[in-house]
Amino acid sequence: MPSNVHYKGPEDMPEVIPVFPLAGALLLPRGHIPLNIFEPRYLAMVDHALAGHRLIGLIQPESDADTATAPPLYRVGCVGRLTEVAETGDGRYIITLTGVARFQIVEEQAVLTPFRQCRVDFLPYARDFVPRLGEAEVDRTALLNALRAFSEAKSIEIDWDGVSEAPNEALVNALAMMSPYGVREKQALLEAPDLKSRSELLVAITEIELSRDSGDTDITVQ
């Protein structure tokens, strides 16, 4: 979903944002993630964002602690803009967040809101604001080979026409976001320093997963 606002860099971002801890969820710059919001505290979070800058930070908790508590968070997340909001009539929101840039948590704020808010720093990820940066360095062939092998091993249907038309940034980030891997793998993909590194890591994780399925334990990831 296109955004009506273009963020040029860290200077365009707020210092404090609401954060949505969600294990296994990955948002990357210019990626899109649909979310079903039904808990009262997160309904309040959406209302808060809609009344302000429309930004919500998606971040993973470090543990599988009870969601009623406040588990520690990974230090790095990605902020998304609310680009689509629908009310269901039964007390839920169906929203889409469009990724803007990654951030580092500086400190969690003491707030009266039912949702958590953090002071964050976007400066370490200033390059995230530049669309399609580093696409030329991506080994598209290796990425597509890994995707083809994974889809065949898992009997997953792939829209190859859509894949062939996707630019490298959209392809790498969409595959990373949709990948069926665990919290640590998703966090590693999020924190990869650039598009080339993320693509290489995605290929490596996929090869490890395929080797486990085949019983081959001799694979080495450099």
Protein described:
The protein has 222 residues and is an alpha+beta fold. The chain has 2 domains: 10-128, Archaeosine Trna-guanine Transglycosylase, Chain: A, domain 4 (Roll); 135-213, no CATH class. It contains 6 helices and 6 strands. It has a 5-stranded mixed barrel with strand order 1-3-4-5-6. A hairpin with a 5-residue loop joins strand 4 and strand 5 (93-108). Helix 5 (183-191) runs antiparallel to helix 6. It is globular. Mean pLDDT is 93; it is low at 217-222.
Summarize this structure as a short list of keywords or feature phrases:
alpha+beta; 5-stranded mixed beta barrel; 6 helices; Archaeosine Trna-guanine Transglycosylase, Chain: A, domain 4; single chain
Biggest sheet strand line-up: 1-3-4-5-6
CATH level-four homologous superfamily name of the largest domain: LON domain-like
**Helix/strand/pairing category:** alpha+beta
Please tally the helical runs, counting DSSP H or I stretches of 4 or more residues.
6
How many domains?
A: 2
Poorly predicted regions: 217-222
Described by strand count, sense and barrel closure, the largest sheet is: 5 strands, mixed, barrel
- Whole-angstrom Rg: 18 Å
Counted beta strands: 6
Characterize this entry briefly.
This protein folds into two domains: 10-128, Archaeosine Trna-guanine Transglycosylase, Chain: A, domain 4 (Roll), CATH 2.30.130; 135-213, no CATH class.
